[in-house]
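Structure, all two chains, one model.
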Amino acid sequence: MKLITAVIKPFRVDDVREALAEVGVQGITLTEVKGFGRQKGHTELYRGAEYVVDFLPKIKLEIAVADDQLDSVVEAITSAAKTGQIGDGKIFVSNLEQVIRIRTGERGQDAL
Amino acid sequence: MLTSVASRLGAIFILTGLFPATAFAEDTLNGADTAWILTSTALVLLMTLPGLALFYGGLVRSRNVLSVLMQCFSIACMISILWMAYGYSIAFSDGSPYYGDLSKAFFAGMTEDSLSGTIPESVFAMFQMTFAIITPALIVGGFAERMRFSGMLWFSALWFTFVYAPITHWVWGGGWLGEMGLLDFAGGTVVHITAGVGALVAAVVLGKRTGFPEKPMPPHNLTMTVTGAAMLWVGWFGFNAGSALAANGDAGMAMLVTHISAAAGSLAWMAMEWIRFGKPSVLGIVTGMVAGLGTITPASGFVGPAGALVIGLSAGVTCFIATQVIKRVLKIDDSLDVFPVHGVGGILGTMLAGVFACDQLGIFSGQGYAEGVTMGAQLKVQAIGVIATLTYTAVATYLILKVVGWISALRASEEEENRGLDLSEHDERGYDL
């Protein structure tokens, strides 16, 4: 099993959600986060006072999938979140040791 | 009694620029006038609660939003009581040319039949009360995000007593500036210069907010700020058109020129930002609106629409430049830019009232000077009014802050400031999201 953590632009969320549903993803955890990568921040001006905002709003998605789903899920996120502009975000993939469904106590792939 | 009526008429004469011939209705209540001033009073209170409170509340960081709302609200309550206790009497009883006496303390002698001109004295006193409320509330913007609540209350009470009340007497209460013929229709000197200078001196005496100017201190909710600003615009009709103290052509013209100046000030500031920084901002357009409104205030009963257009445009440009100079060049932390907007606007408007009141300027003409007064002579009086108000307010504010610093702490500690005044002064949070 794999845990996919994707950090994407907030306005792509709906498209990514639909794309993930199409490839059979059953559950997503979403967090509003802030961060920066190569896009860096942006500047804001209030009555002429310039502020550099380092951290930009992003959306972090966490999705647990079976090994054989990995490629299609990564592909779905990549194509739906991509604008081609700097700041589209990143996808991190890590090994997932265990999954437990709290209601039933099921473990492993059955709990996904 | 006769002398107090005479002095009241004097005040009305100055306020409206009316000729004595129109003062014949001295003993008759006019229902239309009364209705309009009742309405205006509600409008001016709306400027402070909630207008100014929201305008300022949105401009501070989220950890200080309640402190600003609380300051505006508590000032409104405290000044109301002090106005009844002695403020009205100091401002509008005879006394000397510099300070009224206490003959009207606790509104002594005021009954439902007492008249002030053509309106009940209760309505006049209440209308003026709302001006007394908003002036110290404006100063909140100068020391926002760092002043102790107790120090703020002491300061506001003493400042009201020794700055606002006497200067109101000088200009509108039969005092020396009014006698000299100063044109200040609705409070360029009385309200805006005093508040602007008071805020500047308070900002300097209290010192910068921790981290200013290196650390970003952006407004936390501009939606709130724009909401408050829009209420200020509407409320200002009561402020300026109400200062005619009658439902007549002066009031109508004051409302018209007020609106024109607000619109012109907004556009001028927006244009300045667009040219200078490449983008027109929401905060910029509403700040220009306040500049346009503050600047037309002293002139609103004396100038015409085209004069108001010039006043509004020059307000937007001048106050924009002043804001950059105070904050970016001089690095004075007048947190919410009270001096560059209200102080500079008040000075500019008081001087321009002396120009555009002239009835010899073609399309830019106003209502004309008093008989035998030239533009030069009027401008000299305006300059004396500006300099006297500015100097007295600066010195008195400084002394008051020193005294308050001795009775009570003026400034929150660095730790309290970092935690935010909402928690450190009030044990509350503005948002629990």
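The beta strands of chain A are 2-8, 29-35, 42-46, 49-53, 56-65, 89-95.
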